[in-house]
Design brief:
10 strands, alpha/beta, globular, 300 residues, eight-stranded mixed β-sheet, two-stranded antiparallel ribbon, TIM Barrel
Amino acid sequence: MKLSSFLHFAAFGLGTIFFRKKAPILGTVIVTDKCNLHCRHCSVNNITSIIHPYEQIRREMQQLYDMGVRILFFCGGETFLWKDGDKTIRDLVIEAKNMGFLIVNVVTNGTFPIDLPEADLILLSLDGDKKRHNAIRGDTYDTIMQNIRRATADNICFYMAINQINKDCVRDVCRAARDTKNVRAVSFNFHTPYPDTKELSLSREEKARCCDMITQMMKEGAPVFNLKSAFPYLCDNRFPTPCHQCVVMENGKLSVCGRCVEVPGLCDRCGYFFVAEYTLLFRGNLKIIFEMLHTYLKYI
């Protein structure tokens, strides 16, 4: 991370903590909900299958930038399906960098060739060992691993949503992140139970066992892009929601924290690690602050 970026984020954090500001710093643009997969745990794919045009996305990016957002995510659907004429997701990343965003990340399912060195991180969904991943996402594991090995940069971060199907695969994904070429780290979430997927959610005890395994793997040198100080809050769902420092833009609609914020009762069962980490950070939790400094400087 550049020193200028670090200083900007430090100033934002101090201002938010001391003055209780609710301005956002992290924004997500949904470029499409079209996806080539139909994953068992996903509730937001192919609802409209619309690919939003470049000029619209650029306006949404500018709106987020003008609000003070400096960490930008591009999400789907599947982001690598996004095209407008000869423009691809790569053009959006480059435009975001030129616009002034300090960190630009892309979320993908990894089933398309990965040639995106301009992104700071590519968060790539890997949901367990081959058997459990394929049970959730279809027969994609081998294709994804081949695409990772052929990627043009080492900016990939595994992105695992832990649920009832893959809850015993935390160790496998940590080891894959440690041992696979071009993979920098792994980031975890717990399954957030939309009404149509609530059977995949974990109990408090299951979450605690998963966190214990993540902690053990961190001790063994696994590159985990999460903050263990937030684990007790995640297990008990006792972190404040929604996270006002994060916003999502989809087809001109701005949501605080995420698209799920309007689903009744879902915030109380949020499984997003970054939501817990950011809300605790901006409440001034000292352990979270120091751990985040160490983690972000290491992996970004």
